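Notebook entry, structure prediction.
Reason for the run: the old model in the group folder had no record of what sequence produced it. Starting over properly, with the input documented here first.
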Amino acid sequence: MTKPGPNLRRLFDAVEARRARAVGQDHAFKKVNDEETRRALFPSNHPPVA
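New structure, fully documented this time:
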């Protein structure tokens, strides 16, 4: 496998410089799959809420 070209390396460096990989790290994402989450992810598995 060959090394990436200079344009691709420049793109990776630009992305890293903008800290794009850190997007979302300051947000506390929900880590528990409760009933509300399951209904949102799989609505066909649950009867409609009246």
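Summary: Helices lie at 6-17, 35-41.
The old model has been moved to the deprecated folder.
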